[in-house]
Fold each of these.
Amino acid sequence: MSTTITPAGQLVRGLTLVAAAAVIISNVIGTGVFLKARVMTCNVGTPGMVTTVWIVAGLLSLAGALTYAELGAMMPRAGGEVNYLGAAYGERWGFLYGWMQLLVGKTGSQAAVAVAFASALAGALGAEFGRPLLTIGAFELTPLQLIAVVLIAAVTLINLASVATSGRIATVLTGVKIALVVGVAVAAFTYIDGSWGNFGTTGAGGVCEGVSDGARLGIGGFAAAMLAALWGYDGWNNMALVAGEVKDPGRNIPRGLILGVGGVMLLYVFVNVAYFFAMSPAEIASVPKDGVVAIEVMRRVVGPLGVSVMAGGLMASSFGTLHSSMLSGARIPYRLAEDGLLPRRLALLTPTTRVPLWSVVAQGAWASVLALSGSFDALTDYVIFGSWIFYGLTISAVFVLRRTMPDAERPYRAWGYPVVPALFLLVTAFLLINTLITSPTQSFIGLGLIALGLPVYAVFDRRRRAVA
C-alpha cells in the first residue's frame, strides 16, 4: 500500500451524524453495563440508589459532552483534547494527554477489551484458554492472549479502510450492542417471574465477594459506585478524537455527543431496572466476583443456553468497542506527529482511503504488546487518576478559551455555561480527592507514568526547533 504525507485538512470528512454518534455508543457500551450491577449493589445497597448513581454518572458525562461539544465544534481537528489543552494551557499539556493515552489509556483498554472477547469466546465454547502454552521466567503465553492479539490485528486491518467504511461498521456494531442491552432487559421483564417488590429490599444479605468494607454504603460506597458507573460511561469523549473526519462538524459534533451520551444513559437505566426486577438485590450482590449479572438473568430465561447467548453477545459488544476505540485512538499519534511531536511517519495518510496508516498500525502493535504482557489491568488502574485530571483540565479549557479567544468562531456554545461545566469540575475535584485518599499508590504511579512524557516532549520539541 503506497502512502504519502498530506496535511491534516485532507482527512476525509466521511462520518455522518449517525456514524459519529455510533462511535460514542459503540465505544461506551462495552462490558461495564453487564458487570457492574453486582459491585454497585454492594456499594450503595438498594436498587433505587444504584439507579440514581447511573443517572448521576450519566448526567455528569452529559455535562462533559455538552462542554466538549463547544470545543469540538470550535476546533474540529483530529486529536480532540490534544488541541483543546494545547490552545488553553500550552502544547506540552496536549502532548502529555496524548502520551498518557498512547502509553496506557487507549492501548491498555484495547488490550483489556480484546482479552474480554477471548474470555467470552472461551465461555461460549466451554473451553479453557487460560492454561499456559509457553512459560519463560515470569512470562506466560496463553491461548487467551494469542486470541486477543489476533483480534487486535484483525481490527487494525479493518481500520485501514476509509473512515466512511469504518463509520458504517461502527453503526452496524452499535445496532448489535443496543439490541443486546434491550434484549436482556425485555427478556427479564417478559420471561422471568420477577417482582417490583425487589425495589423495596436491600442487598444487606449479599455475599459481596471482593468488595471492601470501606466501599460499602456511606460516602465511600457512593464514591466507589460512581467510579464504577463512570467506568461504564467511559469513552463518551471519543468523537472529539475523530472531529477532523465528521461531516458538518459545527452541527454534527454537538448533536452526536448529546445523542450518543443521552442514548447510553437511557439504555443503562433501562437494563439495570430490569436486573432488579428479575433478581433481588441480595441475589445480585451474591453473584460471584467473576460472574456477570446479565448472564445470570439470561440463565433464568433460557437455562444453560443463556450462558452461550450472553457469551456471544459479550463477544459482539467487545468487538464493537475495540473497533471504535482503535478508530478514534489512532488519531492521537496522528495529530502529535502532524505537530512534529512524534515521528513524522505517524502522520502519513494513505492516498486512497486517507487514514493514518502508521498510527493505526503502531497503536495495534503496542496494544498487542500489552495484551501479551498481561499487565494492562494494573496499568489502566494507574491512569484512572490521570485521566480525570485531563477531563477536568479539558472542561476548564472552555473558561480559559472564552477569555483568551473571545472572537473565535463557536458554532455551538456549551449549554448551561458557566453552571454546567462548573458542576462537572466540582464533581471531578471530589473524585480526584477521594481517589488520592483511598488509592494514593495508584494515583502517584499514574502521575509518574504521565510525567515520563516530559523528557519525550523535550526531545521532539528540540528536534522540531532544530529543523525549523
Amino acid sequence: MTLPVLFQDRDLVVVSKPAGLLVHRTKLAADGQQFAMQMVRDQVGVQVFPVHRLDRPTSGALIFALSKEMARALAEEFSARRVSKTYLAIARGVLKSPSVRVDYPLFEELDDRADRGADQNKDAQEAVTDFELLAQAELPIQVDRYPTSRYCLVRAKPLTGRKHQIRRHLRHLGHPIVGDVNHGVGKHNRFFQTHFGSRRLLLACTRIAFRHPPSGEAVEVRSPLEADFSAVLNQLGWSAHAEG
C-alpha cells in the first residue's frame, strides 16, 4: 500500500491519508500495523517529520516536513494560524443557518493512560470553527424519535487546532458527525452502516493552504474524498460535492 502524493518538493510532502490509518506509532493504538509516517518515509526515501494532527478515523491532506528545520518552520505557521484547512463532514440534523461560527472553548481531552501526569485542572482553551451548510436531505425513515431522519453536509474551517475540535463543536451545536464513536450517536452510526454501508467517520480534510516557509509562495493542496465517502454523498444525492 502506498499513499497518494498530492504535493512534493525538496522541503515537504503532502499525502492523502486514508481513514483508519494512524499518523505515527502510539501506545494508545496497539492494534496498529501501518503508520503514515513510516509509509511516507519509505515512499520518498528520507526521514519525514509530522507537523500537524489528523485523527486516525479522519481522511485527507496530511503534511510531512523533510527536515527538522522545515518541521520547525511549518510548526510556526500552524502556531501563528497562517495555515488554512478545510473539511467536509456529514452530520445529523441540519444547521439552523447557512453559515455559523462556533466560538466555544474546549477542555483538553486526556487519555487515562497516556496523560496520567497531565494537569487535570487545566482551563478550557480557545476554540473557533466556521461551518457552512452545503446540502441537506430528509429520509422517510425513523432512526431516532422522529418519523423522518435529516442529515446535512457541512464545510468546516477550524481557526484553532484543538483535539477533535470539529467533532466536538458539531456535537455542541447538536449535529454530531455520522460515524463518530466518541461524540456521535450510535443509532445514526448504525443506520449509515446498514443503509449506506458506511463504517467510517464521515469527516475528511479536503484542502490545506499555506505559505511555503522558504519562499513565501502560496501553496494550496486539495485532497479528493475516498471512494466510501463519495459513495455516501452519491446515495444522498450530493454527488456535486463528491470531489470534495
Amino acid sequence: MAFNGRFLLNMIDFAQQQGAKADQLIKLTGSTYEELSKEETVVSNEVYNLVVEKAVEWSQDSYFGLHAAESMNLAAAGLIGQITHSSTTVKEALEYCCEFAKLGCSSLPMNLEKVTDAYKLTLTPEPIWAAQSDLALLQTVEGVIAFTIKEFHSLTRMKHYPLRIEFPWSSTRSIEELERVFGCAVYFNKEEIAIYLNTAHVEEEVLTSNYDLLRVLVTHAEEKMAGLTKTEGYANLVKQSILKLVKPEFPTIEQVASHLNVSLRTLQRRLKEEGHIYKQIINELRKEMALAYLKKRELSISEIAYLLSYSDNSSFTRAFKNWTGKTPNEFRIELF
C-alpha cells in the first residue's frame, strides 16, 4: 500500500508554514520536491508515517492533520476534485470520491452507503498500515475527514456539516477543536470511522454553472505555486497562501494572516522588511494572471474579469491599462 507523493507534499507545505523545515521533511522521503509533485509518484507507508510524525513533532501541533486539511485549497484534490464537480448529484460525487480515493491514499479506502436516517461515509484503514503508526493514522484520518467536509461544502455551495462523526478509539485530547472544524458532534469508542450526512444534502444536485471558469483558475494557481515554492522570501510565502485561498475572490490580508498563523501586524511588518505591502502583491498576482488568461482565446474579457475578482469589465480594463498602457482587447489583438 502507498500514498501519492502530492498528497504528502501538501502536508509538507503546511508543515513549513508552521515552522518545520520543508527541505528536511522532503529529505526523509528520499525524493526531490519535483519528483513528489508528479502525479505518478508514490511513497511507501513507512516513509509517509515518518514524515507525518516529524511534521507533528516539528510543528508542535497535535492537530496537525486537521489544520493541514483546513488550510488546503480544494485544488489539492486534483483529478478527484475535477471528477466530483462534474457529477450530477452530491451522492454521485461522493461515490466517485470513494472509487478514486486510492489515487491519493490507497491505505484509507472509503465507502458510501444509505442507512436508516442518513448516508454513512466509512473510512477503513488498511490493517497493516494502521498498525504501524497510531500518530500517522490519527493525523491522516482527521485530515481526510476535514478535507472531505470542505469538498462537501463546495459541492453543495452551502455550509452543510455532518450529522455526527464516530471513531473507534478513545481520545486524550480536547474534542473542541475537532468539533470546531468538523462542525458537528464527535463520538469515540464506536465500531468504525464514520461520517453521517443528511440524506437531503447528499441527494442535492451539484451546482456547476461556474465550474469551467474555476477549473481554469485552479490550474493556473497550481502552476504559479509550483514556481513559487522554490523561491525564498516571506512575500513569496504570502503569495502561496493567497493562491491557496483564492475562491476566485482574493483573500483579505486578515485571512492570509490567519492562514499563516501570524498576527496581522506581524504579517505587515515582515512584508515591509522585504519592501512589500499586501495590496502590491495582490496587484502583481492579478497582472500575472491577466497576462496568462488573455493568451487563452476561449476566455472572454468578462470571464477574465470575473476570475480576477473585478466587479465589471470597465474596472478590469482600467487596471490593465495602468499596468501595460493598453486595454485587454488591444493586448490580445497584438498576441494573435
